[in-house]
Specification:
mainly alpha; 87% helix; 0% strand; elongated
C-alpha cells in the first residue's frame, strides 16, 4: 500500500471517530438544554444535530456544552476536541505570514544588490 493512501485512510478514520464524538456531544447538549425526556423527540434532535454539528462555531459551542455539562469533561479537553481545526488553521496562517515576510525581506535585499551592481557598472 502506498504511503499516501495509508495516511489518507488513517486521516479518514480519525475524522470519522472525532465526528462521532462531536455528533454525540451536540445531541446530548440539545437534549440537556431543551430538557427532552421523550425518546421520539430525542431521535429527532439526533437527526437535527447531524446538521448542526458541522456548522461553524454553533456546532463546537454546543459540543463543548454537551461534553462539559452532560459528560462532565474538563473544559480544556472539550475545547481541544471541538476547536482543533480552528487551532490548526490559525497556526498555518501564522506560519504562512512568517514565510511571506521573509520572502519580502529577501526581495528587498535582492533589489539592494541589483542597485549596487548597477552603480558598479557605471
Amino acid at each position: 500500500m502506498n504511503k499516501i493512501s495509508s495516511l489518507l485512510i488513517l486521516s479518514a478514520f480519525f475524522y470519522v471517530t472525532i465526528s462521532i464524538f462531536q455528533i454525540s456531544a451536540v445531541t446530548d447538549a440539545l437534549i440537556f438544554l431543551l430538557m427532552v425526556n421523550n425518546t421520539f423527540l430525542a431521535g429527532i434532535i439526533f437527526i437535527f444535530s447531524l446538521f448542526i454539528t458541522f456548522t461553524p462555531l454553533l456546532g463546537p459551542i454546543l459540543g463543548i456544552i454537551g461534553a462539559t455539562f452532560v459528560w462532565e469533561w474538563n473544559i480544556f479537553l472539550a475545547f481541544f476536541l471541538f476547536f482543533w481545526p480552528y487551532l490548526f488553521g490559525v497556526m498555518a496562517w501564522i506560519l504562512s505570514n512568517k514565510k511571506k515576510t521573509t520572502n519580502v525581506q529577501e526581495k528587498s535585499m535582492d533589489a539592494e544588490d541589483a542597485e549596487i551592481i548597477e552603480e558598479w557598472k557605471r
